[in-house]
């Protein structure tokens, strides 16, 4: 009887292990015809169907009881979707992925309560080991990087998300290295060493801080540091006070050193958070809409720099970010204070329930979840699909196993198949659209716009929520003599992106149509959105010159010449030479007309 019970347990464990690996394998998906990010999305669409169908019999075999965390997740999802619907800000791709991520959370709830957590943790540690080995192979030149500017990316598109994925697994590896049985301890120790070899090379300060926080929780729990420190403080108050001051100074010095390591990057993120606060102030309750951070941020940054003169340091680090580089700031910006409070309540309740006596590996799970959340304060893990999947797994494991109603559990998971069916199936047409877009970009890049514009028009219905596609399509329309149609498309792109080049192309379209006030407004907005870029001022000066506004043309040209480009290049030098020539030619022409007018006046005086 016991043998049969153990056999059933291990067979179930293998099923859970395979399904967990299947979902986590989204991180490994690569396809040159789709690009790194998009390839992962379409692989996820495929595997979630398998996992969703498999969870229905699992839910019937061993039902679980719904927890307060589960209800809070559903409440947060319902609020976000209703908020977007009534505000009219639904972004189809982001919204569909958001719904499927909620489904993924409940899939992991099913998997992690079906068998002991060791099976899902084994899958998670194996995934981390594969990524770490992948990174080491890149460092030694055995495998190619996924980005031309970075040699270490793992299976991700840059080192940032890669480091976030690794650091969320690191505390769990440390936990099993300290507490598991002998074989599991050795294997976990090997994975821990692999992770520690790769993480420093990512140069991600956020990941380093996350590693300290997550591993600190593991070590503090294992060595009972809180009780020991409390005892030492009560017994040796003076020595403890001096040690606390020394530790504080050490931590402060370390943080200053980390800040100085990439000072410009840190200042840039501080500016993003500062500008984002103006968005929160203008949309405090419900935010600007899920998936609309970038477009709203571009408008806010333009207003910020146009309102008054800002420090030169802020202008220099300004950029056009796609995310807030802090998930709590981004959640507040997109879903308002209500959304943030709901999310924080989920996190609070997850940590609270993780400390349940029945949860034997609570320290490992909370350590990894804490590391993930610290990393989320400095990066954009919720914008990277594999990291979102990892987050749902960690969150699902915080709730201990509790048996519930078989009928309720089975019907709920049957109901979950509806969004999977409608959103994940039938994605072949969209996948082919992305592939056709990728192939059309070859002609776009060599500026064969006449051929490209018609094909982009066919792809528009399927890709109209992708700002990069909209920008390229709008540029094609502009280059083929359709400025009005181009601006309609670019307006859609501007609602989803903070890229000032969108406004530059719109300004050139208005200039082509002789609508000079609108062109001036577009160029000025582009200049204020990212004030360290010279190109908007260059286009503005050219427009003023063409429209006969010579004083404004000279003033704008001189302003451009006074600006130091963020990244000097041959293009910036050429723009400065053009502006010097524009000033000379304009002044020469003005003086010529002045002399002619003086001669005419003198001649009239003689005749009189």
List keywords for this structure.
globular, 0% strand
Summarize the SSE layout with pairings.
Blueprint: H1 2-24, H2 36-61, H3 68-87, H4 92-112, H5 117-139, H6 159-179, H7 182-198, H8 205-222, H9 225-235, H10 237-261, H11 263-282, H12 293-307, H13 312-317, H14 327-354, H15 362-376, H16 385-396, H17 406-424, H18 428-445, H19 449-463, H20 467-479, H21 483-494, H22 500-512, H23 516-529, H24 535-546, H25 550-562, H26 570-607
Helix pairs in contact: 1-2, 1-5, 2-4, 2-17, 3-4, 3-14, 4-16, 4-17, 5-6, 5-7, 6-7, 6-8, 6-15, 8-15, 9-10, 11-12, 11-14, 12-23, 14-15, 18-19, 19-20, 20-21, 21-22, 22-23, 22-24, 23-24, 24-25, 24-26, 25-26
Describe the structure.
The protein has 608 residues and is mainly α. The longest helix is centred in the last third of the chain and has 38 residues, at 570-607. Helices cover 77% and strands 0% of the residues. It contains 26 helices and no strands. Mean pLDDT is 85; it is low at 595-608. The relative contact order is 0.10.
Question: In a few lines, what is going on in this structure?
Answer:
The chain has helices at residues 2-24, 36-61, 68-87, 92-112, 117-139, 159-179, 182-198, 205-222, 225-235, 237-261, 263-282, 293-307, 312-317, 327-354, 362-376, 385-396, 406-424, 428-445, 449-463, 467-479, 483-494, 500-512, 516-529, 535-546, 550-562, 570-607.
């Amino acid at each position: 009887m016991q043998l049969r019970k153990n056999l059933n347990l291990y067979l179930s464990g293998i099923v859970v292990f395979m399904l967990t690996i299947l979902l986590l394998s989204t991180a490994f998906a690569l396809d040159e015809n789709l690009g790194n990010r998009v390839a992962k999305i379409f692989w996820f669409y495929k595997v979630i169907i398998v996992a969703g169908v498999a969870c229905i019999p699992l839910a019937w075999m061993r039902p679980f009881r719904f927890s307060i965390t589960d209800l809070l997740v559903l409440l947060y999802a319902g609020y976000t979707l209703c908020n977007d619907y009534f505000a009219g800000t639904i972004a189809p791709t982001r919204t569909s992925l958001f719904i499927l991520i909620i489904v993924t959370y409940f899939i992991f709830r099913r998997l992690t309560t079906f068998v002991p957590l060791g099976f899902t943790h084994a899958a998670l540690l194996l995934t981390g080991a594969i990524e770490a080995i992948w990174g080491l192979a890149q460092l030694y030149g055995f495998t190619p990087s996924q980005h031309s500017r970075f040699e270490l990316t793992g299976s991700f598109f840059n080192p940032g998300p890669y480091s976030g994925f690794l650091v969320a697994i690191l505390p769990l590896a440390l936990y099993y290295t300290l507490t598991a049985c002998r074989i599991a301890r050795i294997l976990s120790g090997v994975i821990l060493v692999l992770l520690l070899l790769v993480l420093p090379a990512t140069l991600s300060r956020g990941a380093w801080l996350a590693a300290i926080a997550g591993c600190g929780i593991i070590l503090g729990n294992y060595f009972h540091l809180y009780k020991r420190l409390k005892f030492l403080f009560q017994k040796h108050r003076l020595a403890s006070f001096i040690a606390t001051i020394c530790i504080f100074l050490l931590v402060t010095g370390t943080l200053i050193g980390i800040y100085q390591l990439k000072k410009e990057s840190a200042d840039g993120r501080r500016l993003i958070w500062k500008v984002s606060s103006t968005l929160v102030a203008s949309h405090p309750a419900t935010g600007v809409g899920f998936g609309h951070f970038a477009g709203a941020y571009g408008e806010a940054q333009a207003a910020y720099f146009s309102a008054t003169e800002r420090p030169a340091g802020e202008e220099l680090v300004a950029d056009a970010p796609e995310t807030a580089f802090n998930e709590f700031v981004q959640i507040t910006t997109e879903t308002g204070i209500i959304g943030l409070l709901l999310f924080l309540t989920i996190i609070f309740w997850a940590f609270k329930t993780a400390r349940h006596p029945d949860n034997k590996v609570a320290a490992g799970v909370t350590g990894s979840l804490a590391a993930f959340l610290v990393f989320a304060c400095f990066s954009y893990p919720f914008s990277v699909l594999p990291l979102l999947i990892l987050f749902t797994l960690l969150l699902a494991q915080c709730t201990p196993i509790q048996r519930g109603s078989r009928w309720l559990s089975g019907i709920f998971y049957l109901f979950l198949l509806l969004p999977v069916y409608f959103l994940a199936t039938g994605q072949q047409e969209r996948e082919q659209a992305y592939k056709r877009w990728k192939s059309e970009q070859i002609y776009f890049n060599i500026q064969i716009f006449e051929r490209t514009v018609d094909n982009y028009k066919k792809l528009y219905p399927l890709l109209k929520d992708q700002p990069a596609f909209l920008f390229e399509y709008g540029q094609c329309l502009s280059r083929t003599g359709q400025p009005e149609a181009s601006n309609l498309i670019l307006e859609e792109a501007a609602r989803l992106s903070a890229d000032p080049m969108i406004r530059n192309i719109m300004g050139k379209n208005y200039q082509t149509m002789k609508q000079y006030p609108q062109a001036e407004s577009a160029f000025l907005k582009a200049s204020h959105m990212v004030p360290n870029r010279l190109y908007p001022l260059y286009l503005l000066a050219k427009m003023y010159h063409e429209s006969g506004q010579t004083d404004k043309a000279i003033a704008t040209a001189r302003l451009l010449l006074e600006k130091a480009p963020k990244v000097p290049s041959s293009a910036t030098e050429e723009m400065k030479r053009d502006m010097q020539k524009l000033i000379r030619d304009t002044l020469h022409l003005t003086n010529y007309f002045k002399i002619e007018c003086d001669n005419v006046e003198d001649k009239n005086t003689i005749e009189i």
